Amino acid sequence: MSILDAKIPEGPLAEKWTNHKNNINLVNPANKRNIDVIVIGTGLAGGSAAATLAELGYNVKTFCYQDSPRRAHSIAAQGGINASKNYQGDGDSNYRLFYDTVKGGDYRSREANVYRLAEVSANIIDQCVAQGVPFAREYGGLLDNRSFGGVLVSRTFYAKGQTGQQLLLGAYSAMNRQINRGKIQPFNRHEMLDIVKVDGKARGIIARDLVTGKIERHSAHAVVLASGGYGNVFFLSTNAMGSNVTAAWKAHRRGAFMANPCYTQIHPTCIPVSGDHQSKLTLMSESLRNDGRIWVPKKKEDAEAIRAGKKKPTELSEDERDYYLERRYPAFGNLVPRDVASRAAKERCDAGFGVNKTGEAVYLDFASAINRYGKEQANILDINNPSEEKIYELGAAVIENKYGNLFQMYEKIVDQNPYKTPMMIYPAVHYTMGGIWVDYNLMTTVEGLYATGEANFSDHGANRLGASALMQGLADGYFVLPYTIGDYLAKDIRTGKIPTDTPEFDQVEKDVKERINKLMSASGQHSVDYYHKKLGKIMWDKCGMSRNAKGLTEAIEEIAALRKDFWANVKVPGTADGLNQELEKAGRVADFLELGELFAKDALNRNESAGGHYREESVEQSGEQKGEALRDDENFKYVAAWEYKGEPKDAVLHKEDLVFENIELKTRSYK
């Protein structure tokens, strides 16, 4: 085991990034024309990085498995993007955003990275407005803000419930400008299957054309991974079904350390599971918790009657409802962080107060907000003594203006009108805070290999605050990587084009083809989905919302056995030399079967509760915080970075000690 060097600059926190930029190496514009960069993934992190690097003059190749960068999973982000502009005048600042993010991550993130994130956040909004992103505006024309979980200010910029889509279109338009200039060469419907290293440096990739099946070699002076998270290791998640860990895992196998893989975010506002037929889950934006109140019946008999269809939620009076977040966390109420809200919902449902047929749902109710907004609008319109119907009509119009597409989506899926009856929600796997370890420059432990956005581990600690994913992806792509990658590439101005007809490319291509042939030649007993579902059940049952040593030990053994069976008995129809989506899935599930075991190993090693990682053995036993998650700063105040050594069980732990000089380490409380 070694201690990792994050290369954090010296000096005061607020000056680190500025001083670092002033002192790192630059590449002059003429030399940038001779340097190639590969970007894997074209979501917000990859798209913004590719557009900015190309604008600077680098030659960029982008790779995505979708038919267009517009289909990246970033498009699914709904509620907003954080930035510390303090438009509301409610006390926000760079320091407040920094503090909330570190506290929200349960003090398991790197101070310097998070402060830099807060520092550049305001620039992101300006950049996106300049691109034409249609953020919501107040009556006076200023950009509007709403609040998200884990904070006491309004700092979230939004475009109704489709913020991710609008931001992605902004990045995509910036990419298209560079594609038209010839500075970006896009490779859509291509999947990166391995990293090629030359003299220890990342110098290219092996990719598969998903339409023709052709295996291709692509070289560059640096490779950037912006391939998203690995939530689909659970099979059922809010991620797009194609989201996978393959790019990151292949980098891990080639020497990039995987950091904190057990840190997974469970999102509290997801449409509940409806049956075994489902292949993914649908998220309802956390922004709904601004106006929706979360509750379950106070009496078990009422919950049982609702589950049996004998009672409707609207028949319960206020006194018969338990607004449990408002009761348990009065300071933050329904806007507690995601991990806290998720565990509270599970606790109520486990205790027998769940409200759907399976007993795994709670209510998200907008009746109070509709009534409040209706009265407000009646005052604005000078309507005296408005009827209840008029108040409802006016209030529902306000809610529709703020969240209309989300309500429409819910009604389409559940076949219930959320204006008239409360939404049903339950926690689900959403985002992964763990990922490839990177230093302050976003470089992995492989020289010349960078990781940005959700693919890296760097900014969110053990729990991500809502609206911070878009912020990190765009911060990394627009404002961090374009500076830091130049420091490395400055050494390559005389290197020349990286050739692909070398022994290193030969060997990695051979490895890729052998792996594909092995998948195609298995005996064919079970489908890929059969194994993915089995893995997902192990992960959810034993590595999900709560974890314990017994379950994690069992998970490690069960996943290893399942992986062995997969390689012997998976059935991949068709051929390898053409379009074959089952082969694509098989390769991704093979990687999930390795990641899943490392995930469980990391969770077993971390015998503390921190953020989304809730160990049943580590709970507050007394005092005001009784029953809440208990952190162990003495033994686990570090980033766990795992080095690949063959089987996941043999992975070697390296630690990056976390130093807190600007924020006091204390028990996280939202009460």
Walkthrough of the structure:
This protein is α+β, with helices and mostly antiparallel strands and 671 residues long. Helix content is 39%, strand content 14%. It has 18 helices and 19 strands. The protein has helices spanning 16-23, 29-32, 44-56, 94-104, 111-130, 163-181, 246-253, 300-307, 324-328, 338-353, 367-380, 388-414, 468-489, 503-520, 528-543, 549-569, 581-605, 633-636, and strands at 36-40, 59-64, 81-82, 156-157, 184-188, 190-198, 201-209, 215-219, 222-225, 258-259, 264-270, 293-297, 321-322, 362-365, 423-432, 435-436, 449-451, 638-643, 652-657. The strands form five sheets. The chain has a five-stranded parallel sheet with strand order 5-2-1-9-17, with helices on both faces. Strand 7 and strand 8 form a beta hairpin. Helix 15 (528-543) runs parallel beside helix 17. The longest helix is centred in the middle third of the chain and has 27 residues, at 388-414. The model has no long low-confidence stretch (mean pLDDT 96). Residues 36-470 form the FAD-dependent oxidoreductase 2 FAD-binding domain. Its cofactor is FAD. InterPro entries: FAD-dep_OxRdtase_2_FAD-bd (IPR003953), FAD/NAD-bd_sf (IPR036188), Fum_R/Succ_DH_flav-like_C_sf (IPR037099), Fum_Rdtase/Succ_DH_flav-like_C (IPR015939), SdhA/FrdA/AprA (IPR030664), Succ_DH/Fum_Rdt_flav_su (IPR011280), Succ_DH/fumarate_Rdtase_cat_sf (IPR027477).
